[in-house]
Amino acid sequence: MKYDIERMKAKLKEILDKERYSHSIGVMETALKLAEKYGADVEKAMVAGLLHDCAKGLSDEELLKMAYKYGVPVDNILLKVPFLLHGPVGACMVQELFGVTDEEIKRAIALHTTGDVNMSVLDKIIFLADYIEPNRDFEGVEELRELSWKDLDLAVLRAYDSTICYVIKRNMILYEKTVSGRNDILLKLGEEKHEKIS
Ligand code: FE
Ligand code: FE
User: How confident is the model at residue 58 (pLDDT cuts 50, 70, 90)?
Assistant: First the structure.
């Protein structure tokens, strides 16, 4: 192993509360299994899963400050919903705090909340593991878990659907990348899978 996971865990435990730390362990374990199933780099999946929420303990003000510090672009939506920055800011923090320079890991962390177009298998795994890890409990989570072991793209599509419904029901701002990411998956699923969807 290139990465010292135990050391990363110990450090993460210091910066996250108990609940978020357990969530991170759950995402790491789920990402590991998904990586084995879908042929992604298991170690990268574990590191990205473990560290994906490393910026989650920061306040809105701190997230904005860190975004400016790291040069993460902040548009008017992110200014209103700084919570969405915990992905991109976290991707920069893993380098500074944990010495992770791998671009694939950083990208998966950056995209995990919003999704994006052209997601790699690793990006999809982290996005999905964040949804279905064992501590998660929401309506439809069991179906999503089952689907996750059958078809990665369809499961990611359903995860997008679930996010979008959640955001709309609560009158929250829907981020563009979530919409373009969902459209991108649908376009790539193509005709054969369109039958599966309907
Ligand atoms: Fe997150
Ligand atoms: Fe998370």
Answer: very high
